[in-house]
């Protein structure tokens, strides 16, 4: 560049690891080693994709969903081979982990993340034939202790054997 000229450029910083990350960008202007240093920071994605009650699964986009082993505290399993409407990821919705009202401890999933803002997407499908009627299974969902879904009824919301996704934006 000649003296007095400017150049404008854009930088995209996309951390490859989860959590808060920083980097520096050095711009050299001339042979006299004049430079400017710009610090950038960002948060890499935490992507916990968990197949509740099922095994590892890779979807059509190549995203890996892992078994829920190690993430939950209590619960029983149920699975089906029935088709699930409203999804191309049937295997993800054909298993479930549940606990009964008489279970002394509430079912809980725990995920380690750093403080920050997160999108939480919960995938549901009612697959148990005994719960195919509206109101036959209702439950609450808490995220970080805050009520996210109150008396949620999958069948009432989406229907029986139909996938539905609920998304929440939370602070950890």
Give me the count of strands. Answer: 11
* Order of strands, widest sheet: 3-5-4
Mean pLDDT equals 87
The proportion of residues in beta strands is 35-45%
- Calculate the terminal CA-CA distance, rounded to whole Å: 46 Å
Query: How many H/I helical runs?
Result: 2
Note the run of SSEs as H and E: EEEEEEHEEEEHE
| Structure class | mainly beta
Q: State the helicity in percent bands.
A: under 10%
Radius of gyration: 23 Å
* 3D shape: elongated
Please outline the major beta sheet. Answer: 3 strands, mixed
Low-confidence stretches: none
If you had to describe this structure to a student in words, what would you say it looks like?
- The structure is a single chain.
- The strands form 5 sheets. The chain has a 3-stranded mixed beta sheet with strand order 3-5-4. It has a two-stranded antiparallel sheet with strand order 1-2. Strands 6-7 form a two-stranded antiparallel sheet.
- The chain is elongated and about 75 Å long.
- The longest helix has 4 residues, at 90-93.
- By secondary structure, the chain is mostly beta strands.
- It is built from 2 helices and 11 strands.
